[in-house]
Design brief:
There is one protein chain. The strands form four sheets. The protein has a six-stranded mixed sheet, sandwiched between helices. It has a four-stranded antiparallel sheet with strand order 2-1-4-5, covered by helices on one side. It has helices at 41-48, 71-77, 93-99, 102-105, 118-131, 147-160, 177-192, 204-207, 227-230, 233-240, and strands at 2-12, 15-26, 30-34, 56-61, 64-65, 78-81, 106-107, 111-112, 165-169, 196-200, 212-217, 220-225, 244-249, 252-257. The protein has a domain at 2-85 and 163-257: 3-Layer(aba) Sandwich (Rossmann fold). The protein is an alpha/beta fold and 259 residues long. Strand 7 (106-107) and strand 8 (111-112) form a beta hairpin. The N and C termini lie far apart (43 Å). The model has no long low-confidence stretch (mean pLDDT 91). The structure holds adenosine-5'-triphosphate. Pfam families: ABC_tran (PF00005). InterPro entries: AAA+_ATPase, ABC_transporter-like_ATP-bd, ABC_transporter-like_CS, P-loop_NTPase. It is an enzyme of class 3 (hydrolase). Keywords: ATP-binding, Hydrolase, Nucleotide-binding, Translocase, Transport.
Length: 259
């Protein structure tokens, strides 16, 4: 049960955005991809989804090359929450979340799936809205929601698809402090139920709550492993050019940049 990048290089505009990356993402674990601006985080995430052609290497899902899978299978198994995910403005939140069931309700994106049941869908949609604390928003149109509220609806839509992996690009954008913490807690709950979670995160103190970190620098993996292995002063200096002290507070790692 793994999503794996073998020796992956992605070249954009003649420059390697991601270079010879080897990394394994297990299900049942929250992984965070961190690194400075332009390090290749979003590019790696999109490559893992099969959205960006590889210059070299391959991506496999349970040892099957991603490029051999139909698009419908990929999108059912791997959900993507992009930065500022576009949502239809005039549609109510519940119907937007229902769109997340699309891959289950249609076969190859073309034919109605005879196994799909409306009652099951309704319960799954309801659960996704509850988990993301978006139930009170369910009957409101997207155009009336704040940035953080939209983000929660977008997350509920991704969850409604019951993917094996959830890949999120800076999901805490727009979220207030309480929801950022809630999001991480919630992603851990999903991982405990067997989902693989991969999130691009900028906030290192939030990333410290992940199970597994991948620190990218100039397209390369500078360090990977547990937060305690990756979040070291030497690694942060090398990646961000910043001196930082790492301490523990209530058992959690705390990264404080020095002036
Ligand atoms: N469409 C594109 N065409 C050309 N170069 C690109 C393109 N998209 C990204 N790049 C370049 O690839 C590199 C990696 O970009 P990427 O968006 O993956 O970085 P990132 O780590 O996600 O950055 P950020 O933290 O700023 O979002 C950067 O140098 C960027 O300028």
């Amino acid at each position: 049960m793994t999503l794996r990048a073998y020796d992956v290089t992605v070249t954009l505009a003649d420059r390697p955005a991601v270079s010879t990356v080897n990394v394994t993402f297990e299900r049942g674990r929250v992984s965070a991809i961190i690194g400075p601006n332009g390090a290749g985080k979003s590019t790696l995430l999109r490559a893992l989804l099969g959205l960006t052609p590889l210059t070299r290497g391959r991506i496999t899902l349970d040892e099957r090359p991603l490029h051999e899978m139909r698009r419908a299978e990929r999108t059912r198994r791997l959900a993507y929450l992009a930065q500022d995910e576009p949502l239809p403005e005039h549609v109510v939140a519940r119907d937007v979340v229902a769109l997340g069931r699309g891959a289950h309700d249609w076969l190859w994106g073309l034919l109605p799936n005879p196994k799909a049941r409306e009652a099951d869908d309704a319960a799954i949609i309801q659960a996704a809205l509850e988990k993301t604390d978006a139930l009170s928003l369910a009957e409101r149109t997207i155009g009336t929601l704040s940035g953080g509220e939209r983000q929660r609806v977008a997350l509920a839509r991704a969850l409604a698809g019951q993917p094996e992996y959830l890949l999120l690009d800076e999901p805490t954008n727009h979220l207030d402090l309480a929801y950022q913490i809630d999001l991480l807690r919630y992603l851990h709950d999903e991982a405990e139920e067997g989902m693989g979670v991969i999130a691009v995160l900028h906030d290192l103190n939030l990333a410290a709550r992940a199970d597994h970190l991948i620190l990218l620098h100039q397209g390369h993996v500078l360090s990977s492993g547990t937060p305690a292995t990756v979040l070291t002063p030497a690694n942060l200096r090398a990646a961000y050019g910043v001196r930082a002290t790492i301490s523990r507070h209530n058992g959690r790692l705390l990264v404080v940049p020095e002036d």
